[in-house]
Fold this sequence. Notes:
Layout: H1 43-58, H2 74-81, E1 85-87, E2 102-104, E3 110-112, H3 117-123, H4 127-132, H5 137-157, H6 167-192, E4 195-197, E5 209-211, H7 212-232, H8 237-247, H9 262-278, H10 304-315, E6 326-327, H11 343-347, E7 356-358, H12 360-363, H13 371-376, E8 377-378, E9 394-395, E10 418-419, H14 424-437, H15 441-454, H16 469-483, H17 490-496, E11 509-515, E12 521-528, H18 539-542
Antiparallel strand pairs: 1-7, 2-3, 2-12, 4-5, 6-10, 8-9, 11-12
Amino acid sequence: MISNKYISGLLGIFLLCSVFACKKELNVGNPNLPTVDENVKDESGIVALAVGAVYINGFQKGDTWLGDSYFSLPYGYSELLADVIGAQASNQLVSTISIPEYFVLDNNTKVTTSISNISQLRANNTRAQTGSGYNPLYYQWLNMYALNGACNKVLSVVDNIPFTGDATTKSNTIKAWCYWWKAYAYASIGSMYYAGLIVDQDGVIGNKYVVKDSVIAASDKYLHMAADILSTGISSSGDYAAVLGRLIPSFCQVGKGGVLTTDMWRRNINTMLARNILVNKLAPFVNGNPDAVITKSSTSVMTAADWNEVLALVTNGIRDNDFVFTGRSAPANGFFTADGGTVAALTTGVNTSTTFRLSERFVQNLRADDKRLANNFNTATKYLDDLTFGTRYSIIDGGAGASGVYVYGAKTTGSYELYIGPSYEENALMLAEANIRLGNIEEGLGYIDDVRNYMGAGVTAVSGTGLTKAAALKELVMERRAALVFRGLSFYDNRRWGWTYDISNGGGSYNNTFLTAASAVNTNVTINYNFLDYWDVPADEVDINPPGEGSVPTKNPNF
């Protein structure tokens, strides 16, 4: 076993804690080796341990540099890299990580930024820079291996716990819980980093790094294991619901959050399995071309077989009345705060004073008559910038009050519904994209209409209008960017559509809206991001846990 010195793990039996203040230095320890107090000997103890494994280790530990949870900074990087938001703050490179290498304005003026996403990520991937708060590669790895390791700890003791009632059902519910969150952690690592570690035994880390595809395979394995338990290992629905109701904090059992039935949970698993395929392969759609080709990438292109597999999974995926895994802020004992724990919270408010600024490239996905536009954004102030994150738009806290219309940001405690796992909207839009790609254009457009109706957009239906494949994919792209924002998916979409790759390799983003420092609005801007597609393993892991025999490269060899 390699004993590294990463973020400290689980601290035994505890209740959920609030986080209020930012730490100036990170507490260095090991996320893969949480410790358990000796009094984890009964049902209440193992439930508390399983709750803390997810909501403290997974979503709160070490997340006080920018915002106060996993959903403020790691989710924030996804939105930054997808050009959904911009930032001026210097911590963790949030002000520069999303800046493209160059852009071309409407008048054909080419502006070179002299900033390289790839160069700055690698220059700052050192343990010293992590300690100073300037290594973006650190945080998602930190949280997800802390989550995985804590779940390993729960699984190592659950079989020794005496349960009241149907002991097998209760034990299996906790196992399904751990399998689901281990799958979530592996999916996050495999979707973001070029390589990872498979850590499935409590107290044993290992130093054989495997390629991202193997990490995603581990996620799939645990999703299937959870599904198997939910199919055959639950004999008492009452005891199942009682345990799951204690595992999910009561303040999260609101709106789309709630105690999932076994059928609902299996549908969540199907959607997650589909996501693992979709976000980790290319489906290029560059400059309106469904047949665009990316010539330099760390992943392969979706095949017809892949699209059919996605279609089969999401056909049995999340329904509009299913519960899903969500989070809410709480007055006390929560795992994120209302005003600092999410990307939405850090973007909500007057754009001249918020941490994140809503991008013009996001708003361009909403048509002028989309009710989500009027209900969520105002143009009372402009934020001007000499690079790319100038904007006319601010998010209205809590929305403007339109009935039945989705609200993008709310900073009142308990108001904002954070999607931790997949959602109905994501599932429906995968149904749409798979159908369009397989030639069932009208059926695919119908799912786009369904999502817009579900979110109260009030726009004219696009199904039945005779759209071409390219036009249908444009609607799909617009709606995924509009509907799934702030859910940790935006970068994966831009990457698989080819936009984050260098224009010389077939990538780039076209027909963008852009507000210049001189307050000029451009509507046909070409952007060359040239971003690293899958991140290198953080130095905090590699330096202390060097690759062993049979390891794949820990630095993305394609860039």
